[in-house]
Amino acid sequence: MTISGTSENIEQKNTADLCIKVENLHLYYGQFHALKGINMEIPEHEITALIGPSGCGKSTFLKTLNRMNDLEEGVRIEGKVTLNGTDIYRDMDAIELRKRVGMVFQQPNPFPKSVYENVAYGPRINGINRKSELDEIVERSLRQAAIWDELKDRLYKSALGLSGGQQQRLCIARTLAVEPEVILMDEPTSALDPISTSRIEDLAMDLKKDYTIVIVTHNMQQASRISDNTAFFLLGELIEYNKTEKLFSIPADKRTEDYITGRFG
Amino acid sequence: MNNTKMMTRIKRAKRVDHVMTGVFFAIGGFFLCLIIVLAAYIIIKGILSYYPGVFAFNAQGIGNQLFNTIYLVFLSLVISVPIGVMAGIYMAEYAKPGRVTKFIRISIESLSSLPSIVVGLFGYLVFILMTGARWNLMAGALAVSILSLPSITTTTEDAMRSLPKSYKAGSMALGATHWVTIVRVLLPACLPRIITGVILAAGRGFGEAAALLYTAGQSTRINWANWNLTSPTCPLNPFRPGETLALHIWVMRTEGSLNPNSEKIANFSAAVLVILVLAFSLTARIMTKRINQKQVGSKA
Fold first, then answer.
1. A126: chain B residues, CB-CB within 8 Å
2. Does 3.40.50.720 match the CATH number of domain A2-260?
3. Rounded to the nearest 5°, which phi and psi values hold at A33?
């Protein structure tokens, strides 16, 4: 029931608009079966929210999309994840993948460098060293992240001196500087105050014009405010995946309903 | 009633807190005094022993020894810093937990507690007898490097490990390789702590005597007009014998005491050595601060 509803919705879109396709994905941490047969299609230029209680596997799933779990010991993955048709585990290098699929973390994590150097870091490691070019990328990225006006006079000061909300938008700018196709956000506002949170939400909605965004969130209001599609995870399974307004108004699965009405979580 | 009981408990806890605070202040103060008194005693005694020509580059002056000390420390840092820092990076970033890593760690720990005379005799055997060379500065620098390597390795490893995991994750998520992450993010972030380790290592070099006894040697015969690097009397030739200040102090108080100025030379050398170490630490710290500011940008 749920599954057919999902494919119906996504298949209405042109297949060219499909960005990420996940087929029968299993993930194990040693003996622990953390993701159990996930099938999911993430459309381009939309915001897809992943919700579910702590430990349900939503963050783990997010990390499979840019292979950040490669860095952890004892992780085993089965199944297939494709980005615009290319298998990211078999036919793509993790380094190349991460340039195309950027990530914003739960805790703002600017490098202990200046604002400018934080944004210029990605382009620099890709071999861009000309000052004029870097200046341009830094300004464009900070403008895209809606933080240029706040930071233009302190480009050469430490990023560690910024507020949490500014640091998080700087981290988004740092991700944008690499010009990815997809941006993964792992609970990007959970460490921020309400005003910074709403700024990040506005920013995400702004960015979906040019990027595909997948966001993990604890906050169901946030998912319903900003996302086009919502996926509900529970104990490593994808319980329900649908258009956000449908999932929140007429959930197909009892467990989804229980979760979004606050009966557990 | 319960309330009064709690009040007395709080009172007692507060009293203990006051007493312990006092104890820690006293211990801190004691060490501060100790250092000040010691440094002052050595420096004042040194200044009182001053005589014209004490800095001369001959048997009555310590010019050559001062130069040898700085040169030897420089040589030993050139050897030990790259190896130590790379070993530290290996231990923090590449070594997988297991038997081999455990063995390496035990080796590093044992190396750091080796008596310096043992290292000196080992250096004599390997760098002098086995190579068939005379006493030379390079052998001394190698011996000192053996002593300072563990501390540089350990400080680098600790510094790398103490960095937030999020630095590495952030860099990798941007498509950086492990190596680029280390060189461009992790190492710069822990540079101040690594420099502290290097200062300690250098201090070891400045103060070392036993390990140099049979490696760098107890004599210096150089000609300041000779700049032919291959000549044994060229000051910059690292393969010539070179007695350092610390060793000179010891020599002046033992077999060198035939020299009428020996006591004065020893006192003065000690003062110069203390000032040298101080100056080196201060310069290194100021430099770190500068580098840091340039890189991180000033706060707020």
1. 175
2. no
3. -90, 95
